[in-house]
Structure formats: structure tokens, C-alpha cells
Amino acid sequence: MKKLFSLLVCSLLFACSSDTDDYRYSVPEIREFSSAKTFGDSLIYIADSLRVTDIIDQSFSNGRNDGDDSSKNLQFHARGRNSSIDVSLAFNPTTYGGKITVGCRPIISGSDYIVFDDPKFPIEKDGYVLSLKDSVKVGNATYHNVLIFDASKKDTNVCNMEKFYYAAEEGLVKIVTKNKMEYTRISESEYEAIKTANIATQDSIAQAVADSIAKAQADSVAKALADSIMKATQDSLERERMDSLYKALETVYDSLSPNIKDAANCIKDLGLGATLSNMKKCLE
């Protein structure tokens, strides 16, 4: 009788069940993420449709691992070097089937995270949605077991993006910004090619600006001297005096040429960092 009573108490309080300490995922698909063994790209490259690029540093770590993939957890973080992209994911086994914790902006406090408990795809939490695709094509590559975080239906989206795509074995593969611009993963060689092309474009634009300003400066000097000549002729100066002014014009042009070239090179070196203030300094 005493034994029966003890069993009854255990069943009511769950205190004697080994299941209370049995941390597992109830959804098999999550195990694909927590057990990913080939994920190793700590540095990835992305570009948008306008060929604006960024480098993403991504890192991950595995927690508990007793040899059973259903009890392993994974912490993931990706951050852009030149953009505000900041993504974090945590896959954690629990006594009630597991949870996925999402960070979609630089995290300041625990309340910035979005927690999806006992996930069964698709999952919705306060307007945010997590779904799972067997495969997603990004550019020329196809990625498998892709988790998609979608904040597009959220009235007040606290994230600094609208969507991101995370592949089990490769990490971050695509980001959609709030203004619908898509950043997709590219290879290192593609990144270098775009970077080289962008530098060439910036260089030609800067040179055009420099040439334009230099020409405007030269034109203003010429106009000032021409005005002086016109005034001199109106004052009925001798022909010799007018000729000497023309010679002065040629001399000033010759003396200004090196300065104009220096100004053009100075502005060219500023590149996309050129402002009215620092361009003016180039002309001083």
C-alpha cells in the first residue's frame, strides 16, 4: 500500500519520472540544425541587386552533446562589417520539445529576443513567423534545410530587417531589408570582382567631378582676365596694353595648370568620401 501511494505521488508531481530531465527536440527537422557538422564558413560575402556588398562574420558553437543529436544545442551569430545586419539563432532542447530563440538586430537585453517554444513549422509568435523549406535557390546555389524568419506581417517590426534565410549546413544565405532590398550570398571571387568594378566606377566618377571643378576654376580665372581686358579696351587703352593683358592671360593659365592638376588629383583621392568642405580644401 505504501509503495502504491509513493507511485501515485510520483505520477502526480512528475518528480520520479526521468522524463523531467530528458532534454529533447520533439520536431525531427530541428535536429538537422542542431547536429549540422559541416557548417564551417566563418566569413561569407553578400551583395544586393545594386551590387552593394558586405562581409558577414558568422560564428557558431555547440553545447550539450551526449552523442544523441536530439539533445544537442547550437548557438549561431552573424554580423555585417559594413551594414546593420545582426542575426542570432539558438536551438535548445527542452523538457517540452525544444525551442528556437531568434535575434534580428543588435541585442541590448533579453527582451530583444523572440522565442519560439515547442516549434512545429510554420510557427507564429506575436506576428513573427518561422518556416522551413527543404531547399531554397539563392543565385546559382541551392541550399537545403533552410529556416526562414519572416517579420513582414508584423505591425511593429523591431528587427532591422524583414526576412533572413538560414541553411542548416551553411549558415546565413539571404537577407531581405525593410525596403525590400535583397542581399544574397555570393562567392569570394564574385565579391572581389564586384569590389574591383565598384572601385573603377567610383574612380571615374571622382575624376569626372575633379575635372569639372578644375575646368570651372580655370574658366572663372579666364573670365576674370577677359573682363579686365574688356574693361581696358573700353577705357581706350593702347593696343600694346591690350596685347600685354592677353599675354598675362596666357601666363596665368600656364602657371595655374599644375595647381589645377593637383586639385583634380586631390579630389580624385577623396573618392566617395568627397564633401563640399574637403573638396574646397583641395582647391585652396
Mind explaining what this structure looks like?
The protein is of the alpha+beta class. It has helices spanning 2-13, 28-34, 188-234, 239-270, 276-283; strands at residues 43-47, 53-62, 74-80, 86-92, 99-103, 114-117, 123-125, 128-138, 141-150, 163-167, 171-176, 182-186. The chain has a 12-stranded antiparallel β-sheet with strand order 6-5-4-3-2-1-12-11-10-9-8-7. Strand 4 and strand 5 form a beta hairpin. The longest helix is centred in the C-terminal third of the chain and has 47 residues, at 188-234. The chain is elongated and about 85 Å long.
Topology:
Elements: H1 2-13, H2 28-34, E1 43-47, E2 53-62, E3 74-80, E4 86-92, E5 99-103, E6 114-117, E7 123-125, E8 128-138, E9 141-150, E10 163-167, E11 171-176, E12 182-186, H3 188-234, H4 239-270, H5 276-283
Antiparallel strand pairs: 1-2, 1-12, 2-3, 3-4, 4-5, 5-6, 7-8, 8-9, 9-10, 10-11, 11-12
Helix pairs in contact: 3-4, 4-5
Brief summary of the model shown:
The N and C termini lie far apart (102 Å). The protein has helices spanning 2-13, 28-34, 188-234, 239-270, 276-283, and strands spanning 43-47, 53-62, 74-80, 86-92, 99-103, 114-117, 123-125, 128-138, 141-150, 163-167, 171-176, 182-186. By secondary structure, the protein is of the alpha+beta class.
